[in-house]
Give the backbone structure.
Amino acid sequence: MGQSGLTGFFDRYLEAKSIFRNKAVLQSAHIPQAVLHREKEIGAIAGILAPSLKKEKPSNLFIYGKAGSGKTLSMRHVAAELEMHADANNIPLKIVYLNCKLKRIADTEYRLIAQLARDYGKSIPPTGLPTDEVYKIFHQAIDSNSCVNIIILDEIDQLVKKAGDEILYNLTRINDELKNAKISIAGISNDMVFLDALDPRVKSSLSEEEIIFAPYNALQLQDILSERAREAFTENALEQGVLEKCAAYAAREHGDARRCLELLRVAGEIAERNSSSSIGISHLDAADEKIERDRLMIILTTQPKQSQATLYAIVSIGISSKASIFTGDVYELYKTVCSRIGLRPLTQRRVSDIIAELDMLGIVNVKVISKGRYGRTREIALSVPSTTTPRMKKILEESLNL
DNA sequence: GTCAATTCACATGAAAGAGACCACGGTCTAGTG
DNA sequence: CTAGACCGTGGTCTCTTTCATGTGAATTGACGA
């Protein structure tokens, strides 16, 4: 019977010794006890925020550095310690952490302020109220006691890109209107040039203090990895050279520790699924490929239909001809695709933007070129290996019911 | 041959509209005492 | 009399269209050597 076979499988699954001891340690949400190789930065942050313990307003702080360089981790680490000290000594201090990238939570002015107000115990409807009303509520909530408030805005560049820098201006200016409380803002950004694009008034007040996080190098990544791996895996689960290779992989991609940990975790999962007792280099390679494939798959299937149709047009042209792909050709094919699947075609203006969005997602590579007398256009190239394009096409065909 | 003007095929920006979602206050309606 | 249903108004948010302006080098054509 199939059923008993399955029972056998589950039995064996339960019996097999897992190579994981605690998988959560490798998840990006995990906050480790000690933050390695960031002593200097943590010291700097602590120094800047420390005045809050004396009920003084700390300087606004701006942190930037590449993805996975420990910015958020360090900031949260300091915040947690600070809160602990404040608690222990009865100092009125409140720290709010907000990730501005989270869709539908804090990616517009209204939502950001509403979310902040909610953190102060007010209930704000998701929409329907005028924005200045929400400001007023937030203002009252914060000013009701004389407390120092530190607001950590993670991925602040995303917020500004979507909603403009007026929010930051308003936020930094709230201080002038507060009678009791004080607000400090700590912005975290991946984007190095983000500050330059800001309104100079906002820029000067937001970046009273600046801290730059350099990417981890391979050796530091190795340290971090081995520290986490010791907790995450059982003994002898890692074969020789795996950690080194993993660190080298990530160091190549600008020292992203988050990606590094993910790689190790997925490699572990693959090893376990193959009922292997340890993680080898081959698992690492498989993991690298799987992560890339999964990422692509998620992006493809979660895109709106219009983007899928556009991408389908690009992929089709890319497969059928070796020559460069231009916006005009894509749009023509896109229109026929639309009529075939009964989709109302968008204007070229919009499709142009969609192509730019696909570029942002890293599926295609776009370069604006001028062909002289023959106009200006985007030169589009698929940024996935040509071996995966047929599969991409198939996935898109299914998703679009072609 | 040289050089400035022209021209193409879009890119890029700004503004505004459509439609979905929501809160709030006023009005209407049916049920209850 | 009152709770709940049902508008109308005014707000946000996202996606899109419309209109306007910008752009960079191949091409063209006038000009001079």
